[in-house]
Amino acid sequence: MGVYGCDVFDVRFYRGGPNWPSNPFHFQGAGQIVFEPDFVLLRGSTHRSFRFPRRAQQRLRKADIVNVRVEGPDVLFHVVGVDGKEEVGFTAPDRDAARAIAASLPTRWTPEFQTAYTERTAFEDRIDYWSPSTPAIWLLLASNIGVYVLMWLQRGARLPTLASLFAKQASADAIAHSFQLVAWGSNVGRLTLGGEWWRLFTSMFLHGSLLHLAFNMFALWQVGRLVERIFGSARFCLLYLLAGLAGGIASVLWNPHVNSVGASGAIFGLIGGLLAFIRRENSGVPPTVVADLRGSLLPFLLFNLSAGFLYPHTDNAAHLGGLAGGWLAGHLLARSLHLPAQANKA
Q1: Residue 49's pLDDT band (boundaries 50, 70, 90)?
Q2: Neighbours of 191 (CB within 10 A)
Q3: Would you say residue 114 lies in a domain?
Q4: Domain assignment of residue 119, yes or no
Q5: What is d(CA 282, CA 342) in angstroms, rounded to the nearest whole number?
Q6: What's the pLDDT band for 308 if we cut at 50, 70, 90?
Q7: CA 42 vs CA 25, 76, 230, 269, 305: distances in Å
Q8: Whether residue 149 sits in one domain with residue 211
Q9: Which long-range contacts (CB under 8 A, 24 or more apart) does 155-164 make?
Q10: Which of 72, 167, 265, 308 fits a 20 to 30 Å CA distance from 242?
Q11: Is there a single domain that holds both residue 101 and residue 222?
Q12: Considering the entire predicted model, what is its pTM?
């Protein structure tokens, strides 16, 4: 079993997730793919709440399988049905096994998938050429987390409980923490407008709570890696800085009595810069990728801005200011992702 050239291969199924191929049959864990003359059999286990896993199998017609491709040890393909195409994916023991499985599956690609796959591959090649690594995002993550840890140590290094993460701080603790944020450089309206403009910068690296930090760093990680690879590390840092400053300025002008902290203005600016970049002609971002990015970024923006208006402590002025500042900076800092002639020949 699982020897290349045989009709049965051992594979592993996943229910889904950002880093694993999923399958519509709810298979999870160890399984098999079995090749018959006109059919492909998928055998796996479906996990059920408070019950033992149930063994099951799906028989797929080879004529219905299209768009087979290999991504490392993962094999993915579409199955054409009455309701359209469903994607099926699983992980082989290694890359050689994945290629052997793919070689036993039909080779037909649909025209629309061929176009989309070619454009996405070209985009990956371009950003791999220009920015193969993302050092700046690690520096920003370390800076934000490091500042929070130093402030936590200054407060006495008390570990937070699960309840304290969601409960409102006691008034004495909240006041003490507010004073600490001011001392460390929060964007306090009367001080910033009074000449301490450096607070527009320092406030970008301060956070009011562990949850505040966690949400912002997760968003920065999700968005920042792609933005850094598209703009390049130096331009990415400048975009982050300009967007954060724009968010701080908008915040203090909108509410002169504000005491604002957080990286969210800069993060919204990264999204604004990315939207500005993909809007440019001859940017090197193919139409398929532009559609993918717009389809994911716009709902994210609408959700977070709407939530900001509902939650009273959210500084939406900083979000909108950062978004606008990032949009403008994105136009100024954008570069072309098209490969030079020597790269195309390599």
Answers
A1: low
A2: 17
A3: no
A4: no
A5: 19
A6: confident
A7: 9, 13, 39, 45, 44
A8: yes
A9: 155/180, 160/210
A10: 308
A11: no
A12: 0.84
